[in-house]
Amino acid sequence: MAKKTKRQENGAGGGRRAGGTPATVALTAAGTPFTVHEYAHDPASPSYGGEAAEALGVSPERVFKTLVADVDGVLTVAVVPVAGQLDLKALAAAVGGKRAAMADPAAAERTTGYVRGGISPLGQRRKLPTVLDASASRHETICVSAGRRGLEVELAPAHLAELTGAVLAPIGRA
User: Fold this and answer.
1) Displacement of CA 3 from its chain's centroid (Å)
2) Residue 134: which residues within 8 A CB-CB, separation 6 or more?
3) Whole-number Cα distances in Å, 143 to 52, 93, 116, 163
4) pTM of this prediction?
5) How many CA atoms lie within 13 A of 59 on its CB side?
6) pLDDT attached to residue 54
7) What is the per-residue pLDDT for 50?
8) Which residues have CB under 8 Å from 75's CB, separation 6+?
9) Do residues 113 and 146 touch, judged by C-beta distance below 8 A?
């Protein structure tokens, strides 16, 4: 069954969206062009990212999930395609670390200010080191969480990297 989606485009310097999230507010404040995609989130869905790709009709290679890992005691954000998995060794290497493991979900939520399944790489409560999978550069635009389940933001990968201070590295695997 197709899910209804709502799309709103915001040009550089566009107005603040009513009910915006910290991610959309940060994008607007930076004057970054982006498009908001909203869909009806199904709590029973086994994959937040897979659900987003299907609901938006976008290839899973263009929809990226935001994961929080612990790299040598430092919480680090990894942004990888929903079609694959995070390579923890590659993530550690990308930030000059030795060891990485997925962060405790409660610590990730507390630090970013977002709930699991809605963590955005943008507008986080505390800015964390961020690594964007290098595959993002193959696309004109990608989609990432806009800060809540059922809300995605589409933007150029270069803008995402600039706003988050992300390093581009091959951290995803199929």
Assistant:
1) 21
2) 168, 169, 170, 171
3) 9, 25, 17, 15
4) 0.88
5) 8
6) 87
7) 83
8) 68, 69, 103, 107, 108, 111, 128
9) no
CA 119 to chain centre: 7
| Largest CA-CA distance found in the chain, in angstroms, rounded | 45
User: What is the Cα–Cα distance from 38 to 25, expressed in whole angstroms?
Assistant: 16
Rounded distance between C-alpha atoms, residue 75 and residue 163, angstroms: 18
Measured in degrees and rounded to the nearest 5, phi and psi for residue 63 equal -100, 125
Distance (Å, rounded) from C-alpha 62 to C-alpha 80? 9
Instruction: Give residue 17's pLDDT.
Output: 41
Dump pLDDT digits (tens) for 2-11: 344 444 555 4
The single residue listed with the structure tokens 């290497």 is 93
Beta carbons of 56 and 5 less than 8 angstroms apart: yes
In terms of C-beta density within 10 A (0-12 exposed, 13-18 middle, 19 or more buried), how is residue 57 classed?
A: exposed
Average pLDDT for 61-81: 97
150 touches 70 (CB < 8 A): no
The pair of three-digit structure tokens given for residue 105, joined into one six-digit string: 């979900």
**Is 172 in contact with 81 (CB distance < 8 Å)?**
yes
Helices (H), 5-164: 22-30, 48-56, 88-94, 105-112, 157-164
Extract the tokens encoding 143: 């989609």
Helix axes 22-30, 157-164, angle to 10 degrees: 100
